[in-house]
Amino acid sequence: MKKTGSESTTAKIAKLIYDSLSEKSETQQVTHNMAQRRIRITLTIGAAVFALTQDISRVASVFLVDYSCALKLSTPVTFKSIMYRAAQNGILLKGGRSIEKLANIDICVFDKTGTLTYRDMEVTDVVSLCQNNSGRDLLALAASVEEHSSHPLSQAIVNAVRHHQLPHIEHGEVEYIILTV
After folding, report:
1. Distance between alpha carbon 84 and the CA centroid of its chain, in Å?
2. Which of 32, 97, 121, 174 fits as disulfide partner to 156, beta carbons 3.0 to 4.6 Å?
3. Which residues have CB under 8 Å from 31's CB, separation 6+?
4. Which CATH class is domain 106-181?
5. Residue 147: what pLDDT?
6. Which residues are within 8 A (CB) of 25 and not within 5 positions of it... i.e. 6 or more apart?
7. Read out DSSP for 128-159?
8. pLDDT range class, residue 21, cuts 50, 70, 90
9. Are 78 and 100 in contact (CB under 8 A)?
């Protein structure tokens, strides 16, 4: 069955982008609040300068020194620029909050069977973040556990171990629990 209107994939992506542009990240909220406080201070100083000097050019100087506009503009422009650049590279980001969460990511595993690859999945690199284990040890351990799964990513790990002729590591019982969200 083909979907039309708001149920189509294109419409859902457009809605995601529209919603993400109106969503403020934590950084945007902080800079907005700082700018709001700064505007009040600047207007008060500008009014005081005008009351004391009656010189509009001095008031203009006070307003030129103010940076609240730059705060209010720079943060949203930066996040929207990041989203635009990512979209040019085929990456759809959900908004400023998602961009901020990227800073906390340590490991990213793509499990897109057939989407990112043109043939069977394969392990190209193994990086161990633990000083005690090498990438080869980690790969052997992962394959020893994953050999019981029929998932394509698991099979890629097992195939890599066979290719590199790494030893099988004995282990206890493995139970796979599939969660659906």
Report:
1. 13
2. 121
3. 71, 72, 74, 75
4. alpha beta
5. 86
6. 75, 79, 95, 96, 97, 99, 100
7. --STTS-HHHHHHHHHHHHTT---HHHHHHHH
8. low
9. no
**Residues 68, 71, 74: CA angle, nearest 5 degrees:** 140
Residue type, 43: L
| Token code pair at residue 32 | 């907005």
Active site residue 66: no
Residues of the chain with CATH 3.40.1110.10: 106-181
Task: Give dist(CA 134, CA 112) in Å, integer.
Answer: 26
Tokens representing 148? 């019981």
Least confident of 13-22, 29-38, 80-89, 124-133: 13-22
Q: How far apart are CA 16 and CA 23, in angstroms?
A: 11
Handedness of CA 124, 128, 134, 138 (dihedral sign): negative
pLDDT digits (tens, 9 = 90+) for 77-115: 888 888 888 888 888 787 788 888 888 888 776 655 555
Q: Quickly tell me which residue has 């980690």 as its tokens.
A: 138
Of 19, 55, 111, 120, the catalytic one is: 111
